[in-house]
Fold these 3 entries.
Entry 1:
Amino acid sequence: MQAADLALLFVSSLLTAGLYAVSSYSITLVYGVLKLVDVSQGALITLGAYLAYTMKTHLDLDPLLTSLLVAPLFFLYGYLGHYEIAKRLLQKYSGGRVLENSLLLFFGLLLALTGAIYLVWKGDIKAVNTAYTLASVEFLGLRVYLTRLVIFLYAIAVTVFLVYLLNRTYVGTAIRAVSQDLESSLACGIDVERMFRISFGIACALSAAAGSLLTLSLAFSPIIGLEFILIAIVVTVVGGMGNFTGAFLGALLYAVVDSLGVLVVGPAYARVVALAMMVVVLVVRPQGLFGERGRI
């Protein structure tokens, strides 16, 4: 492979990382605030993708616009419904096994929602075509797909928004306080339950937006959420659990390693290389490459 091809592969993988980053933010937020691993967010990613497909098919809405429309709806679902599931879990299991039981509960919810998506949209592979699906632009002297650049810029905007929200607003400060010291937050008069609800609302909105976004560059089926939630867990672990900046940088690293894996061992085993990277990080630096810095 020539140097130009390698450079194009490297840049393309970096741009793809934007999608991985947005997909991982829901896992990062829920774990950072409640110390729960909500794998059911993968089903919400899938649902976001199918809603984008449906809106494009019947109303000719661009997936970018759909992502902005579905986010408030999924925020309400997370605030009013999804939190109630976690709340019952926390109330029932208060003896130190919350994490284990959250994995079982949310994995079951993931399978149930995925099954419902199968019933509604069937198992056929879907794709969304826009006016710029095949368009390309010059980026860093290379020709890349416009959709990848759009997704990357979208991811940067979401990252900046989340960092601003958590560091420059009262709600964000309260969420960080709850995540760091629950008892002190209660003593200071913070409505902890409301912060939990808001956290789940934001997480569900991010998942739906990520699902809508992935339709710009990928074909998908009802199991796309399972794939992306696995990637999200790898990215979150590598970057540092509960760390948005770390998740973004972890997504960049994952995308590069995944692309190199395709070159070295082929597409069938590339994901194994990326998972091996996570194992190495867990052994060498369990807190993630970026540790506690920037954690919620």
Entry 2:
Amino acid sequence: MSTFANLRKELKAKANPKKAKILQRFFKTEKGEYGEGDVFLGLSVPETRRIAQKYKDLKFKEIEELLKSKTHEERLLALLILVNQFQGVMLKHNTSVRHKIFNFYLKNTKYINNWDLVDGSAPKIVGEYLLGFASINGSKQILYKLAKSKNLWERRIAIIATFAFIKNNQFAETLKISEMLLNDKHDLIHKAVGWMLREVGKQSQPTLEKFLKKHTSKMPRVMLRYAIERLTSGKRRGYLLQNY
């Protein structure tokens, strides 16, 4: 039996139908919901991570097959393996492989179609790649293109990818994309933007508060709540009052 066949056999062996039903509710898979039609096996994330580490050397074509699967855990597994491979080649300073993974990721965003898939991969592939090529003119423009997308998940990729910049005390992209997404209609974008603004605040509270002073009155309530979560109770109350 091939390595790939063993991998799929292992996934099916760990399937938990009872947990799968819970996950399908949690990830909003009913008609009209953001995860409509997504299918779960019922594996936990730690289980999936262990399998990803075990098969970290999976061939690229097989990773692509997993990513195009209708099964959520197979898509998650593909992304976890890509992240492992991307981080591995970073240590080896292999630019060409990083470039290949980055381009593959962007060509297949339609399969990165739930918030956990985005959040576990966008900063570690898109963000880290762009961070490494920050000196190249226009390298970050892809983020603004994604932020303007009609696709919910591409917009989320745009803002969540900037987590890599935040960790390196670079806030410009996060703040610009947050401004672009202020009027977004989806609460998953509101939460993502608020989360990234909160992370900016952890690194530089004055930078966060400068943004808040300019935009508090226009921010969706949930975005603001996420952004101010780590501020003092008095400051939180003040910003919430400005938001009415």
Entry 3:
Amino acid sequence: MRALFLSLLLIAWPVAAQVYTYIDAEGNRVFTDQPRSNQAQRVELAPSNSMSAPAPHYAPPAAVATPEPSQRYQVLRILIPQPDATIRDNSGNLIVSVNSEPALFPGHRYRLLLDGVAVAESPRSPVFPLENIDRGTHQLAVEIVDTQERIIERTPNQPFHLHRISLAQKRRINPCKLEDYGVRPECPLKDKPEEKKDIPLIPFL
């Protein structure tokens, strides 16, 4: 079972979103916004920097459905991370939390997009753990889709900035020792210096 080292953000909405995690009956780790199990533990959200968001960029949806009046959503938004947030996580991990009002109707599901590519879907949980995201600026968006893959609702692209320490920076902070080569990612075997061999002393007769 993989352990996630998560870099999370505090949100600025009037009602603070909470994230919980627990192990289900099949041994899988589940992330949710509701403490649905007695074993659920609250995930503490670490603060991070954020700036005022620039004008949003809209990506044209592939297909947009016209929902029935009884199945319209008043709100669809990304709660975590905040718009234009700066996230610092050396593993490139992130939790994304979304919210819709009302909650998902039967047959609908959330679809999360990272840089325009669908990376996760869920018919119930609005919490998505992501791993090993590259450093730099990225765009998040969330869609609600139906069983026919039609887009019911979609948010604008929301930027965030991920900072990760480079291997060179890690080597400067903690220089490689001979026993570290081939063990630490920042100390590859190809960079291992040749070991000096002791030349035996030959006594003169």
